[in-house]
Write a structure and sequence with these properties.
Helix Hairpins; 3 domains; mainly alpha; elongated; two-stranded antiparallel ribbon; about 65% helix; about 0% strand; 4 strands
Length: about 325
């Protein structure tokens, strides 16, 4: 259609469902009725234009969607590893607090069963670690590992089956880690091809992953007229239901891209923790204006959207002085 110079618009399916009763006051649905409802909505202007997405932004969207799947599998494999440790070798956490730490993973690969580990010497444990790790835990860790293995209360039955299960879990964990590294490497390469991405990454607190998630879901930010347009695209604009004297609660509409909302929120939280300007404004909102923390975060998401759109449209660098000039009291604090 684009190639034939035909203007393309899209109508929200949810809006079609809500408007179908306006024609005949019934909840009936058919292909003919849907076509009439859609035609009426287009005639009345209840549509949005289809925005062309450049190839780099399309790549980011596909890669970040792929990354979400890989991260889910990685988290699932870690949870199953924790369950396995709880059953077979719960005392392992006395030596390694995190099961996915390098030392813990190396221990699970080499000598996961406490029944065999209790008869080993600490020197043998260290020697085993050296075969799979460049920087391995010391002799004290090995001594502690042998001690906790001797008094382990882990399961003593079906150990062969548990060992086979652990091998499969570690294979799945290794595959997910490798795939995550490859996906994130691809994301980094694509970001280098977007002209203003480098300037956005210079903002302290903005990571490559959060920026890739925002650009992948939103597309080319220079195509938005204002930050509020980006918020509406994400479903972060406000919605109110009031009637007469009754005033309903003002809430976020959530009619938009959920993944874009998530990455905007995560980016803002990172800025509040790491960026001095955003940290000062958030502190000013909470302590001086007595604003609730979540409400302050939502306001800062709007500010981040406006900063991103302004930088993308004008292709300019981030200027902390502009933000401080708008909130001099907050900057001082």
């Amino acid at each position: 259609l684009f190639n034939h110079n035909i203007e393309v618009v899209t109508v929200n399916p949810y809006s079609v469902k809500r408007n179908k009763e306006n024609r005949d006051n019934t909840q009936s649905k058919s292909d003919k009725k849907d076509a009439l409802v859609i035609a009426d909505m287009v005639k009345n202007g209840y549509y949005s234009f289809v925005r062309h997405t450049p190839e780099s932004f399309e790549k980011l969207r596909v890669l970040m969607s792929n990354r979400d799947v890989v991260v889910k599998r990685l988290v699932s494999s870690i949870n199953q590893l924790n369950r396995w440790v709880d059953i077979v070798f719960p005392e392992l956490r006395q030596v390694f607090k995190d099961v996915k730490a390098k030392g813990a993973i190396a221990t699970l690969r080499l000598f996961p069963m406490p029944t065999k580990l209790r008869f080993m010497k600490p020197d043998e444990v260290v020697a085993g670690w050296k075969t799979v790790m460049k920087r391995q835990p010391g002799l004290k860790k090995a001594q502690l590992l042998v001690q906790v293995a001797k008094r382990s209360i882990g399961s003593l039955q079906a150990l062969d089956a548990y060992k086979f299960h652990l091998e499969q879990l570690l294979e799945e964990y290794d595959l997910a880690v490798k795939q995550l590294e490859r996906v994130e490497s691809q994301v980094t390469d694509v970001l280098t091809k977007i002209p203003y991405a480098k300037k956005l990454l210079l903002i302290k607190g903005i990571s490559e992953i959060s920026l890739a998630g925002i650009l992948g879901e939103a597309g080319d930010l220079s195509g938005f007229s204002h930050g509020n347009s980006l918020l509406r695209h994400a479903g972060l604009h406000l919605a109110e239901a009031s009637s007469g004297k009754w005033k309903g609660q003002i809430v976020i509409s959530k009619r938009g891209r959920s993944r874009l909302r998530r990455f905007l929120y995560l980016a803002t939280m990172s800025l509040v923790m790491n960026n001095p300007e955003f940290k000062a404004i958030h502190s000013h909102n909470v302590k001086v204006k007595k604003t609730k923390k979540m409400k302050s975060i939502m306001k800062l998401i709007g500010k981040l959207a406006r900063i991103f759109i302004g930088m993308a449209r004008r292709n300019e660098a981030y200027c902390p002085d502009k933000l401080q000039s708008l909130f001099p009291q907050a900057a001082k604090k």
